[in-house]
From TrEMBL:
Keywords, alphabetical: Cell membrane, Membrane, Transmembrane, Transmembrane helix, Transport
Organism: Tabrizicola soli
TM helices/strands, residue ranges: 12-31, 100-121, 133-160, 172-198, 243-270, 290-314
Name this protein carries in UniProt: ABC transporter permease
Domain of life where this protein originates: Bacteria
Membrane topology: Multi-pass membrane protein
Keyword Transport belongs to the record: yes
ABC transmembrane type-1 domain residues: 94-311
């Protein structure tokens, strides 16, 4: 296990270096940001001073090296749009995105797994057939269409929930949370439903397919022959093996929730990192875009490594194979 962890850390370092290089090169050639930061009648000396302050007068390889060194310390330079440290902007926006993703992930697990079990154990029942139809619609509909429909029904027609913003928040140190205010909780409902819908339907269908396959295996037949109750077979033996691939998919999708929260934050004007990234793209704010891509990639790497470790812990066959490979 230790050797596996060391290998994954080394791989992660190379992955992050590659991502940093791609992000730096991709957005380095989007034009001269000095033209957007100074007046049209600015003198050559003023433009040169701004260029020197941003470090744009250095060679490209040196700029990349300084970018990597500072990024490792959490310093991504100054935003070309706001003239503020990028790390400060991300720290202000990260709590909103983190809470949105957390609620969406919890909803997808809490609802997806039981619904998947239900559709697997009673596949021909009316509730199971209805859930299958609803899940198909949920996967097929574009995310932004779902968000617009939610706003139309619950905000415009019924007036129950807010259609935009984060509501009232409470500051706890540098972290701002909406969990402790009624307005914050109400504002969180529609965006989290929109964000979790695809993940929920995916988990439900995956649990259903995996459980149906596990219930057809020989050891389940032996368990029935031994006289074990259906409850014990379904929830003690079958469910445990069903959840192993679900953990892998959920881990990968969790990173996707963070990356693709951009659409949700745009539809609901949620003040998170995704909205900040969209603003940066509109303005050509290279430091913010590069920092966002590096941060999201880092989260992906951490989540994937954690999922691999959990997979090895939950599946004894992987530990046995790893021990044999070591010898």
């Amino acid at each position: 296990m230790l050797g596996f962890l060391v290998r994954r850390v080394i791989q992660s370092v190379f992955v992050m270096l590659a991502v940093a290089l791609i992000a730096f090169l991709m957005f380095r050639f989007m034009g001269d940001p000095v033209n957007s930061m100074v007046a049209e009648n600015a003198s050559t000396e003023e433009r040169a001073a701004v260029r020197e302050r941003l470090g744009l007068d250095q060679p490209l390889w040196l700029q990349y090296g300084r970018f990597v060194a500072r990024a490792a310390q959490g310093d991504f330079g100054l935003s070309w749009r706001n003239a503020r440290p990028v790390s400060t902007l991300l720290a202000e926006r990260f709590p909103a995105t983190a809470e949105l993703v957390l609620v969406a992930a919890v909803l997808s697990l809490v609802l997806g797994i039981p619904l998947g079990i239900l559709t697997a154990l009673r596949p021909r029942s009316f509730p199971a057939q209805s859930l299958q139809l609803i899940s198909l619609i949920g996967i097929s509909l574009p995310t932004f269409v779902t968000g617009i429909l939610l706003i139309l029904v619950f905000s415009v027609w019924l007036g129950w929930l807010p259609s935009f913003g984060r509501g009232d928040v409470v500051d706890i140190g540098w972290w701002s949370t909406g969990f402790f205010t009624l307005a914050g909780l109400k504002a969180l409902i529609l965006p989290s439903i929109m964000l979790c819908l695809f993940q929920l339907t995916l988990i439900m269908r995956l649990v259903r397919a995996e459980m149906l396959e596990v219930l057809r295996t020989d050891y389940i037949k032996f368990a029935r022959a031994r006289g074990l109750s259906n409850r014990s077979i379904h929830f003690r033996h079958a469910l445990k093996n069903t959840l192993i691939p679900v953990i892998t998919i959920f881990g990968l999708q969790l990173g996707g929730l963070i990356a693709f929260a951009i659409v949700t934050e745009t539809v609901f004007q949620w003040p998170g990192m995704g909205a900040l990234f969209i603003q940066a793209v509109s303005f050509g704010d290279v430091p913010v875009m590069a920092a966002y891509l590096v941060l999201v990639s880092l989260i992906f790497v951490i989540i994937n490594t954690t999922v691999d470790l959990l997979y090895a812990v939950l599946d004894p066959r992987l530990r046995v194979d790893g021990a044999r490979g070591a010898h």
